[in-house]
Write a structure and sequence with these properties.
By secondary structure, the protein is α+β, with helices and mostly antiparallel strands. It has one domain (23-150). 39% of the residues lie in helices and 21% in strands. It has helices at 2-20, 24-38, 50-56, 103-108, 136-150, and strands at residues 42-47, 60-67, 75-78, 87-88, 113-119, 122-127. Strand 5 and strand 6 form a beta hairpin. The longest helix is centred in the N-terminal third of the chain and has 19 residues, at 2-20. It is elongated, with a radius of gyration of 21 Å.
């Protein structure tokens, strides 16, 4: 009977230790985010508005942002589940939509990218981090492609 008490004691000691360890998903997300920050990207978790939440079925998204002056008007395009095309938010100017300046780029983005957004000082992508296969280098490349389209006068060095 004493061996049963030893097993119970070991479980009580080891349980909290194993519970506190990160899961494989948490380790993968930490590595992705660390790599993105090493590439100079800014990360944030943003809550979506009611219009988007109703269509996206989630209340927040992880946003990877490249800070750079674009001189562009603020706009955002969303990819909603069950839809092939990109949907602009109601305040997005028409020329920036899926058929405008970004038409070719957004069609080549992987399905794990939920949103493309631009404001005067940054370009950003909202990413479904649970989707497999997306790396920080790919996110950085897509952001730099977006920046190149919006700021064609700047030449890469």
């Amino acid at each position: 009977m004493w061996w049963l008490w030893i097993v119970v004691a070991m479980v009580l000691i080891a349980g909290p230790i194993f519970w506190a360890r990160p899961t494989p998903r948490e380790r993968r997300l930490a590595a992705l985010r660390t790599d993105a920050m090493a590439l100079g990207l800014k990360l944030s978790t943003e809550y979506v508005d009611g219009w988007t939440k109703q269509r996206l079925n989630r209340s927040q998204v992880q946003v990877y942002r490249l800070v750079c002056p674009t001189g562009s008007r603020t706009f955002r395009l969303w990819r909603f589940p069950g839809r092939i095309d990109w949907t602009p938010t109601p305040d997005t100017p028409g020329r920036m939509g899926r058929d405008g300046v970004l038409g070719d780029l957004v069609q080549t983005l992987p399905v794990s990218i939920l949103s493309v957004a631009v404001d005067t000082w940054s370009v950003s992508l909202a990413v479904d981090e649970d989707a497999p296969g997306l790396t920080a280098a790919q996110i950085d490349g897509h952001l730099r492609d977006l920046k190149a389209i919006l700021s064609p006068s700047e030449t890469p060095q």
